[in-house]
Each structure stands twice: as C-alpha cells, then as structure tokens.
Amino acid sequence: MRQASRVLLAFSVALTVALAGVGCTSQRGGSSGDATPGSATTSHLTGPPLTLGFVTVEGSTLGSYPETRVAAQAAVNRVNTALGGVGGRPLRLVTCATDGSPESSQNCANRLVAEKPVAVVGGVDFGTQAAMPIYESAHIPYVTGSPQLSGELDSKNAFALSGGSVAELLGITNYLTATKHVHSVHALYVDLPGLLTAAIQGSQNIFHKKGVSDVKLIAEKSDAADFAPALTQAAAGNPDAIIVVFQAAACARIVQAAAALNVHSDIYLIGACATPAVPQAAGGQTDNLYFASSYLPVGTTGGDADAAAFRAALKPNDRTSASQGAFSTVLNLRTLLARLPQPTADSLTTALRATHDEPNIMAHPYTCDGKQLTIFPAVCNSAVRLLQWRSGSFADVTGTWQDGRDLLSLIG
Predict the structure, then answer these.
(1) Sign of torsion, CA 204 205 210 215?
(2) Distance CA 73, CA 80 (A)
(3) How many Å apart are CA 203 and CA 173, to the nearest integer?
(4) Is there a shared CATH topology between the 31-163+298-381 domain and the 166-293+389-410 domain?
(5) Nearest CA-CA partner of 87 in 336, 361, 352
(6) Tens digit of pLDDT for each residue in 164-214?
(7) What is the distance between the alpha carbons of residues 56 and 156, in angstroms, rounded to a whole number?
(8) Three-class DSSP category at 276
(9) Shortest CA distance to 131 belongs to which of 158, 95, 94?
(10) In CATH, what number does 166-293+389-410 get?
(11) Which of 82, 99, 335, 409 would staple 60 via disulfide (CB 3.0–4.6 Å)?
(12) Which class is domain 31-163+298-381?
C-alpha cells in the first residue's frame, strides 16, 4: 500500500499540474428539499448571517473557473430565498480569487479566515496545499466538491465530497475491466516526465493484473501544435478503449482530431474534460466519447428542484463538473448546518466527520470517515458516473455508479 500511496499521490500532484499547465449504492443524488410555501425569503431572515468562504482560480494563465463562484453564489441565493436560510438565518458568501500560485492561495486563506467563516468551500485552486495549514490552524473546515491537489485529499481538516480525478480514473478503470471486459487499452496523457509517468505506469499495472493484454501509453505535450500524430499512435490497432488525461482545452483539440481521423475506438475522458466545449469540438461525432464525472447530469429539462435551480443559474457552457461541485457543496453544508443547535466551524467539522451515507446533491452519498480512499482520508466519496453528450447536454450512460477504490491494492 505504501507503493500505491506514492503512485497515487504522484498522480494527484502531477495531474493537477497537467490540468493547470496550459459507502451506499443509491442510484440518485441527494436533494436539498424545497421550502414550504410559507418559508422565509431573504428579507424575512433574521439574526446574524452565517459566513462561508469561497476560493477559486480566476483570470490566471494557469486556468480560470469563474463559473464555480457563480455556482456557489447561486446555491447561497437558493438557500436564502427558497430554503429558509439556515435555521432562519441568512447565509453569506465571501469569495477570494487566486492566480494559481501557492502565495495567492495563502493570501486568500488569510483573508477568508479573517471573516470567521464556518467553512471554506473550494472551487478549483491549484495552490491549496500551501493554504491548508492556515485553515488547519484556524480550525476551519475546508470542503470541496472538486479536489485537485494532495492537500485537499489528505489534510485532516479537508473534506472532499467527491474524489476528483483520482476517483474518475479509478472509475473508468473499473468500468472497462468489470463491465466492458476490455482486452486492449491505450492511454494518451500529458507529457510530464517523472511523477505522471510513474502514475500512468501504476494504472498500467492495474490493467495488466486485470487481464488486459494490450496496454499502450502515449505521452504528448499539453501545447502540442497538432494532436493528430499522438492520437494516431493511440488509435493504432483499434483498441477497445483510449483513455485521455489532459486539461479541457487540450481535450477539445483531441476530440476534434479524433473526429477528423475517424477514430472508432471508445474514448474515455476525465472530469476536467466534462465541459460542453469538449464534445462540441467533435462536430457531432460524439457517439464514442465518454466522460467520467462525480456528478449526475442535469440535462436541459427535468430532474429535481436542485438540478432545475442549477440550470437556471448557470449558462449552458458553464454547467461543468466543477461548477456542479461548488453548487452541491454549498447546499450540502447548509443541510448539515441546519441540524446544528449552534452552527460553528467546530460543530460543523464534528458533523462532517460523523456523516454516513449522507445525501449528496447531484452526487453519490458521502461518508467522511477517512476510509473511502484510505490513502487519501479527506475523500468522502469515490463514486463516479459515466456520461455521454446527447441532444445538447450530458446524459447518463449506465444508470449506475462506478467505484474503483478496490483497485488500489493492484497499483503497487
């Protein structure tokens, strides 16, 4: 398990750099529940507001995720206007944008801690590991629906209500081996020698031990002028599946190249690529594209009240797994806070640690016992869904959750 820990930790750190560098078997997610017609609106809420901090990367050359902030604020608005606040008290969101550097994440942490929030919600922040000691010292829980770095995965003060890219890759692997029974898997991954290479080789070990005879790894630069040559290598021999590990911008170019090359193999992409812009780049050739996501698809109509509220607040191209994570996390925290006689950071931390199969908005129920992914104790939920792009939105493929946490023992 020590080897598995090193490999997955390497994967976690390296994959984040790559993406920046350019329980229960329920089939449904949770629901925050609508307030009754007589519930309070913001103007009728009384008492001092409860503050949530929120941090995400915006306007950086490493990436920008303003949709996560918009989603978090939309969830706060829903709490205050439709759900009666938190025990009749309004919820308040204080936001801080980082530039992706450790220093900016530390600066945001200090600013948010000064606001005395009951929790800090993480959108997408590449410098979180440097900020975690500040949250820990202040005894303020850091809660995220889209974890990126090891600090968000293993801090004693962090709670990841989804497993992020680590869980997504494990889920894809589980689906390919247990359901599809593939014989050949090729992986096209961003070229970062050292850490990422070790992580990809760890995944290769899983496939080999699961009886997959043909496993090929193809590395390419994230800023490659043309992905066609690398994709041609990945598609050689028409493998049963091609796994793509890149950031969204590169994924869009890769699926565009796949359509131009008429690649027939099924292509599986991690959640960072589960944005509308990626399948749209394929020019209608999306039948062989699959996306792993920690969240249920919201579609264009239907679903529960939370899904409808999310759709109403987010533009279609901003309805990503990351923005779903921000929206979901705020509503999940409101549910826990509303149960507490005196909601504080300490009591919320205790409540999070006591969760067991807790309903999770638009996601699989979560359990924050530190045992869901034992080498990453902050992860409270490792289940993912497989999605496809159909009729202008993401749709569920299998109707079941994929959870590959038991595969960890095969990495070493």
Answers:
(1) positive
(2) 11
(3) 8
(4) yes
(5) 336
(6) 988 998 999 999 999 999 999 999 998 765 445 566 677 888 999 999 999
(7) 21
(8) coil
(9) 158
(10) 3.40.50.2300
(11) 99
(12) alpha beta
